[in-house]
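Please, structure for the following, as tokens.
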Amino acid sequence: MNIKYIVIVQGEPYSIFSEIIGKFLSKRKIKHKIIIIGNLALFKKQLKKLNYSLVLNSIDNYQEAIKMKINFINIDFKGKKIFSKISYDSKKFISQSFKLALKILNDANGEGVLINGPVAKKTFLKKKYLGVTEYLAKKTNSSNEVMLIYNDKISVSPLTTHIPLKNVAENISREKIIKNVVKLDNFFKKKLNKKIKFAVLGLNPHCESIDKISEEDRIIIPAIKNLTKKNIKIEGPFSADTFFIKKNLDKFDLVIGMYHDQVLTPMKTLFKFDAINLTIGLPFIRISPDHGPNFEMSGKNLSDPSSLFCAMRFIDKLSL
């Protein structure tokens, strides 16, 4: 894949992301055209406070971006403090940042990558969208978007994302399992040149239910049988409580879970921040480092940058 631009959206101006970027860019050699979209004055002040010295190439238009340099496009933000609590004041700033990023990526015709910094769902999305995954899908007129949490050793994908646990059972279906697995299988083949093996987790504890016909029998097993006929390597359903042990991690590449925490909890336990959140099904590759805004640690220079390093390793694989 030829990569024209890596667009980095700062996200919440008072999150830990400026620190993460500072730690990353002070150690990593720049290989691609990187464009950071954020507030230049605030970003410089935050880096200075955290003792990171980066040379930023301020540009007005993304077409002025230069390879091997840290290009920066400024978006107005009225906050006066260097670090502060997250509030609704950042909503317009984040919205304008995403708007510009999407224009750049649209002009890149599928040869751009978006890395967005953490966004506070409560203040930015305001319950209008389940998450940034769904927000970007709406803004790009995409449908059937799929969340993928990626690590070099194993990845996971929840069938349902940010919905209440009580609503999970009614939001899973054979069709959705089939559609998601096919989309993920194609993504790994086309983007990473890799034929992967899937494991599917059950919904119920021990894949058992007191109901006459369980979701495993009615939905999950028929979906797996259908996918096997499509020549996709897939097994399951497995009981979630015992799946994430070494022999299974060595055997499979991607685990399909029925709900968000069923697969994200073990991933974060195993790999901490050495993972990334990908949205499959957009017109471009979208990556979000696997951590939140964490304003409580903002400005303390104690945050782990592993996720951004993981993101760039992944991008390097795409450009091979």
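DSSP finds eleven helices and twelve strands in the chain. The mean pLDDT is 91.
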